[in-house]
Structures are given as structure tokens and as C-alpha cells.
Amino acid sequence: MDLTLDGLSVVTDGRSLLRDLSLSVPDGRCTGLVGPNGSGKSTALKCIYRALRPSSGTVRIGERELPRLGMRQSARLVAALTQDGEIDLDFTVEEVVALGRTPHGRGNRPLGAAERELCERAMERLDIAHLARRGVLTLSGGERQRVLVARALVQEPEILVLDEPTNHLDVRHQVELLSLLRGTGLTTLVVLHDLNLAAAACDRLGVLCDGRLVAAGTPRDVLTPELLYDVFGVRATVVSHPLTGDPQVLYSLTPAPPAPPGTAPESAPGTAPDPSPDPSPRPSDPVPNGSDTSCTSTGC
Amino acid sequence: MKGSPVASETPETPVTSASGDEGTAGGAGRDAQRPAPRRGLTLVCLALAALLLVSVVVAIGLGPSVIAPAGTARYLWAALSGGEIRASEATTYQVVWEIRAPRVLLAALVGAGLSTMGVAIQAMVRNALADPYVLGVSSGASVGAVGVTVTGGLAGFGIHATSAGAFLGALAASALVYAAAAARTALSPLRLILTGVAMALGFQAVMSVIVYLIPGSEATSTVLYWTMGSFGAASWAALPVVAVAVLLGIAVLSRHSRALDVMALGDETAASLGVSPDRYRRGLLVLISLVTGAMVAVSGAISFVGLVMPHLVRMVVGAVHARVLAVAPLAGAVFMVWVDLVARTLVAPRELPLGVITALVGVPVFVTLMRRRAYMFGGR
Fold first, then answer.
1. Contact with chain B for residue A75, Cβ under 8 A
2. Which residues pair with A185 in a beta bridge?
3. Which of A75, A262, B298, B366 has its CA 20 to 30 A from that of A231?
4. According to the UniProt record, where is the region Disordered (chain B) (predicted)?
């Protein structure tokens, strides 16, 4: 089922968190949302899983408008992995996973045999079956994250929305999780910080900056050195993955790429290059300095 | 009091304890003490129900004049079935039926209500340290009661004027806390707690002023009564209101136990699972205020039960609210019946305030359990 964001804006306390965001997430595909901190990615997702009501604009699932659906109805269509992964009580792993069935049951009806099996399968898929009776509060961050993903899967949604699902995961589980997400065949919208993982996992990427969508398209179209500089304030090289051909971003830590001619760093003419260059950027440096990393710069 | 229907809906899980033991033997030492869920629940509930029945009969029998349990049971049966009592037994019967029975039943009801409302408030404000009085209910009730005592208002309620004043004071306090904590957006749990604490301090100040300005009056003893708690004023007339409030409250909460589970996953996750945390929080606030207000009005503020009983129950049956809400009322009732018994017999003919005993008994038990079990609340 398609997911469409149509002119979403969110204003809280006079601050504009999201400005006129329109994005369509095609059926069965994985779409990534990237952008610097505070660019409105999580805010956009909250509007989709109904933790936040947009000030204007709407979210459509297929032909249905989200605000017209009841909370439970929309929870049967959209499952979310949120950022507030704090759990208050020491439920066991299987209990938390079973809570994913909440929107499907009425009141306190206990889970049926089919639902219990669904939960067990999800736990096996996420490699947490052996933890079933452990208390969630005793788990590591990565284990807990996988429990929450399993919970979202047993919700049997049409659309999966994930806010930085690879947080706390080691590299193996990051790769496994994203492979698994691709394998579900669900319409997926995922916020990722790791651009390389995003390029590998997503069919399309949307780039948010200061609450606005500044680019959208395939990872190859979107992830260009120019955009990375404009939006994230970093100079980076984009290469093709030798096996998959996905664009991959390489960063250089010192902000001193080969400067274009004519904008060389100030140095007294005729003197030899400084043997121990000052690491702190000078005001006239053409490269971005600390204050430039926010996307409020000229870029967008 | 049968707890919730959940108790009887226990699904058959024949391998429950076996697989649980395997899992923990595999090296997950930290949860070695986790109870096997579900299967034990019916058993725990039945045992507690039986214990409650026995406790009630024993407690009714004990006091200045000791009556054997069999005798107590006979008197109670006579009262319920309209049987005959010999003239020589009339006094004892009066003591059993008119004085002790309502008092013990009230203790059971309030114990059940407090521990259940404790579960509810901890889920509502997402805080382990919350008890049903955190919304200022108890201090509001004290001010209401003292106000009525001093001014002689609400005379239309007759001998229940003080209780009515306490109830109105409790509701007024909740309403004030709600109004102060509510913002344009959602009802924030932390703001609720902070507002409640601030309001409670304010009410206590008001109370102190009243007591200070009108020394030696009835106000001082009224204040003591309401801040420490007692079932001394129990009567059959006072029971129905509390019974209805407590039993309805427990029933409503049990019906929504899964929503309480979901709320413990965080507000955003709750929304994504189709549970509006804000709507539930408002509903819970009303429910908790009404039930706690009704209890405070007849028994005063009995500290500690609403805070600790939920934790004790969770240690035994796990965190899922369907189970907690089945066990908490029974456990709270049993506990309170014995506390009240100790309160009125230990230094007879004087009575100890209930709050003193709940704290003296509960604190060591709680600390011991905390240290022994791998019990966690919010990872803290």
C-alpha cells in the first residue's frame, strides 16, 4: 500500500519543525529519510504513526486519509519503531512482542494459537527466541532494539515506519536488520543516520533539511558530494560499491580537501608551506567550519 | 472480590515452567528467579482469596473480647441468613456484626482499592515512586474534612458531613492539579507529579494554618485522623459507597489492562499501537481521583500500601497488568485486614494509626525483596 505525505507542516510553540513536506513512499519499497540532526525526520515519522498531529497537510495510506481512521485502525496499517524505546516495567521479551497484537484484539482477549505462533516466528527471525523469558530491562540495547522490531512485525502492518532502527546495534545486526526489512516486502519508511547503510538498504532516499525536503530520488541521484556539502556540511567523496554498485560515501576527517584554485588558504606569498599547519580552521577558510554543520547554512 | 476475569482465562501452557527453567539454566542467571507466569496465577488468586476469607473471619473474632473463628462464622451466617441468636449472645453478636464486621470489610475494601489504584497511578504517571495520593488527594481530603469540622458546613449530610467534606476536598485537589498540569498539548506525566507534590504541600500549609489558628479544637484530631488513617469510624452505612467505588474501579481497570501495558512502552509507541496515551491518562486521572477520594473520605490517608503493594505483586507475578490487577486487590485486602487488626489490638484499648503499621511492616519486607530479587522498574 502506498504511503503519501501531502504538504505536511508541523508548528509547535511557534517553531516550524516541518515545512510543507510532500513525499510518496511506493508500495513494497524501502524509502529512506536522511538529514542532519533536527531536520524534522522524526517529526515526519511521528505524524505517520500518530504520535503527533500535523498542523496542516495530511498523510494518506493507499486511498485512505489517516486522520479519518481510528487510532486502532491506523495501528493495524502502520507499525512503528520509535525513538522512545524506554520501557517502564520489566516485561518479558515474549510479553513485549505479544503487545504488538494490541490493535488487532479487543480489550484483554488473550492471544490465539495463531497469534502466539506469529510472535514466536517473529522472535526467531530477529534472533531473540532464546531470550523469550528474559526481562526486557536486563537486555542489552541491541537486544532490546530487536525485541521492538519483532513487536512491530507481529503488528502485521501494511506500512513499517522506523526511526533509526540501527541505533545500538552492532554491525552484524545492523546489516541483518536492514536485510530483514527489505525481505519483509512491506512499504517501509526508515530514518537512518548512516548514509552508506541508507544507500544500500533503500530504493529511494528523501533528504530533509531544516524541515524541508530538499532532494528525493534514488540513492545514486541524491547522494552527491554537492548535496552532502550543502546539507550536512561535510566534504565527502562518493564512490560506487564494487559489488553492488550502490553509492558509498567516504569521509575525510580533516576538513582540508584539495581547495579549488584561487581560493587557497591564506599564506604569505612566496613562503614555503607551513610545516605544521594550524588545525583550527581560519575564518576565511573555504571549507566548512564548526558552525557550518547545521543545515541552516546557505545550502538549503 | 474475585479479581478480574483474567484469572480464569489462563491459557494452557503445559510446558511453561519446564521451558522457563531450561532458558535460565542456559546461563541467563539474572532472571533465574523470574516466576513462571500464567500457570501460577489462578493458584495465587485462589490462595489469596482463601486467605482473605480466613483473615476476615479471624480478624472479626479478635479484639477486646475474643471469639473463636467458628463462633464468628456462626454469627456472620446468622446475620446473613436471618438465623436466630440466643438472648445471652446478643451482646457478642452486636460486637461482631455491628462493630467489627463493617470495620474489617472496610479494611479489606480500602486495602484492595489502594493497591489497585497504586498500580493505576504508577502506570499513568510512569513513575515507580507514585502512590494514589500523588495527585494531592489526601491533603485535599484533610483540608476538606477540617474545613467542615471547623465551619460546621455540609450539615445536610448529618454524621457523614466530615466524610463528604473530605471527598469534596479530594476531588477539588485533583481538579486543581489537573487544571494546573494540563497544557495546550498533552498531559505530561512529570508535570502531573510535580504539580501534585506542590499542591499537596500547599494544602498541608492551609491545614496547618487552620490547626494553628483554632487550637485545641476538634480540628487537630481531625487532621491527625486524616493524615494517619483509621477504620475506627467504619459503619455499615459507610460501606456501600466505598464498595461500589472500589469494585467498579477495579473492574474498569481490569478491562483496560492491556492499554496499561502499552502505556508502559512509552507514549509514542503507545500511539503507534492504537492507544492514545493522553486520552487514557485523562480517564485514569478521573478514575483514580474518584476511587481514592471515596476511600480517603472514610479511612483517611493510609500511606505506603498504594506505593509498595504494586511492586510486591509485580515481583511475584510479573509486570503484565492483567495478572497484576488480578492479584493486587486480593493481596492489598489481606494485608490491610491484618494491619488493621494489629492497629486495634497491639496497644488496646488505644489504637495505633494505620500509617505507622503499614510503614513498619511494609518497609522491611519491601527492602528485603528488592535486595533478593532481580526486580527492576524502568531499568533503575
1. yes
2. none
3. A262
4. 1-35
